[in-house]
Design goal:
Layout (H helix, E strand, L loop, with lengths): L42 H18 L6 H12 L6 E3 L1 H8 L3 H14 L2 E5 L8 E5 L10
Antiparallel strand pairs: 1-3, 2-3
Length: 143
């Protein structure tokens, strides 16, 4: 191992990434394998699917909801990553401009209408709730 060096003021230290004389493209380990093409959905496909779900919601379901239910659904949909959204009722209430009580009622109604599924119900000091949103329900939306 080399002894530590002291560099004079203004003198540049050597590069941090060493290069091997025999291999100029030296790397610090193997690169992770890339997934085969077509095995995962592209960002464009995911974006298109989200936009289609939002269009379907607006075209088929929005008219049958109260303003509070629509706002709650939209806030939860906006927070959805992958298949679920993890968000607190208080956060939904703040962003939707509704009371906590109105948000609780809207979540229950959306769940009953089949537009929202509660995966995990959060409690005080036990974390936030996790929801799955559905663009259109299988049941009659005017329940």
């Amino acid at each position: 191992m080399d002894e530590p060096r002291t560099y004079a003021f203004g003198q540049d230290p050597p590069p941090l990434r060493p290069s091997s004389p025999s291999n100029p493209s030296f790397s610090f380990g193997p690169t992770p394998p890339r997934p085969p093409k077509g095995s995962t959905r592209s960002a464009k496909t995911k974006s298109r699917e989200r936009f289609q779900a939002l269009n379907s919601f607006v075209d088929r379901t929005l008219a049958s909801l109260t303003p509070a239910e629509a706002l709650v659904w939209l806030v939860i949909y906006r927070d959805t990553r992958g298949d679920a959204a993890t968000v607190s009722l208080r956060s939904i209430a703040n962003r939707a401009g509704r009371t906590l009580r109105a948000v609780r009622l809207a979540v229950k109604t959306l769940e009953r209408k089949g537009l929202l599924r509660v995966v995990k119900r959060g409690r005080f000091r036990r974390g936030t709730s996790t929801y799955c949103v559905v663009a259109t329900s299988e049941t009659d939306p005017r329940q």
